[in-house]
């Protein structure tokens, strides 16, 4: 019998390059599978670490999930390497700064975008952003340099980490440094007062916040802090005067919306809190343990225990720190009487 004809097959391994990973990242992003999208974009960047389009697209995903500092780090790298070839980065950075509460920085980058490309793709959005920021900005100085902005972001993100985990003393130490180093960044003062109050220095926190409000009578952060402080210390008349006004305020930025919704939960206005939480974009706030903590709490106290349990369990999957804590509605230290 003759031997059968044998062929030697050449097996060519398929090794995906950056374009393949990038396309998969875009596909996941379009399906709103943001964590999966980030994984694909990281693979794409591992193939082509300095590819500007990959970095820009990944920054957009970070913006969607509320990691604004990470988004801006990528966009700044693109601008440093490619300059005005990627003008849209200026608007994207402005948008992220606005969400972080760095209003002067947001204004500066939005204006830079319009100066460089007045008819650009994001021109209308940039004009709208400037209109909103001009209305809200009454506190910050516009003389910051880029090095200071980077330092503020690092401090702010570290403080955020400790505040979200209710590590008050660690947050206080950092905030004291911030107030000295960056006196123009007023949000640090409000976070400092909040941390002081829950670290046990209630009288000092109230005095500092009241003094600040006298000097800056239209500061939303002061109103929210004092509403919580008065509620906790049973200053009923002062409390009711503040919350009546706060019920009629609807902030523009997602971070402020979350703070206001959380405040309503902390002061026992659970139905009002629930309606505010329902209007939030969860994809932009998944990085905040407080979102899950206070949303689940208001659900529980309006009688929707099933929804409360679901939100709390989802939060525990997103943030390991929550797994170590009791459910907030079982913790009398978190909810006032």
Automatic annotation (TrEMBL):
Keywords: TPR repeat. InterPro entries: TPR-like_helical_dom_sf, TPR_rpt. Gene3D superfamilies: Tetratricopeptide repeat domain. TPR repeats lie at residues 18-51. This is Tetratricopeptide repeat protein. It comes from Gracilibacillus marinus. The lineage of its organism: Bacteria, Bacillati, Bacillota, Bacilli, Bacillales.
């Amino acid at each position: 019998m003759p031997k059968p004809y044998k062929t030697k097959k050449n097996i060519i391994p398929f090794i995906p390059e950056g374009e393949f990973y990038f396309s998969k990242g875009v596909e996941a992003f379009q399906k709103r599978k943001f964590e999966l999208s980030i994984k694909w974009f990281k693979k794409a960047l591992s193939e082509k670490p300095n590819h500007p389009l990959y970095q820009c697209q990944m920054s957009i995903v970070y913006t969607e999930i509320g990691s604004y500092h990470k988004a801006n780090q990528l966009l700044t790298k693109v601008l440093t390497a490619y300059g005005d070839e990627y003008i849209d980065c200026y608007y994207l950075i402005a948008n992220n700064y606005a969400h972080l509460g760095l209003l002067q920085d947001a204004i500066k980058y939005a204006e830079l975008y319009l100066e460089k490309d007045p008819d650009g793709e994001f021109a209308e959005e940039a004009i709208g952003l400037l209109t909103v920021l001009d209305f809200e900005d009454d506190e910050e100085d516009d003389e910051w340099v880029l090095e200071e902005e980077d330092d503020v972001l690092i401090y702010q993100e570290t403080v955020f980490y400790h505040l979200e985990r209710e590590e008050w003393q660690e947050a206080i130490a950092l905030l004291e440094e911030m107030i000295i180093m960056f006196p123009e960044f007023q949000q640090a003062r409000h976070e400092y007062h909040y941390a002081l109050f829950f670290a046990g220095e209630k009288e000092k926190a109230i005095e500092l916040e009241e003094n600040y409000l006298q000097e800056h009578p239209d500061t939303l952060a002061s109103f929210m802090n004092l509403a919580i402080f008065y509620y906790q210390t049973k200053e009923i008349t002062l409390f009711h005067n503040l919350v009546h006004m706060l019920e009629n305020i609807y902030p523009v930025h997602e971070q402020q919306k979350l703070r206001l919704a959380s405040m309503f939960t902390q002061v026992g206005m659970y139905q009002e809190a629930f309606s505010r939480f329902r209007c939030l974009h969860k994809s932009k706030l998944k990085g905040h343990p407080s979102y899950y903590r206070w949303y689940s709490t208001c659900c529980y106290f309006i009688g929707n225990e099933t929804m409360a349990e679901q939100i709390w369990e989802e939060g525990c999957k997103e943030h390991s720190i929550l797994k170590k804590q009791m459910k907030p509605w079982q913790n009398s230290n978190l909810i006032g009487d």
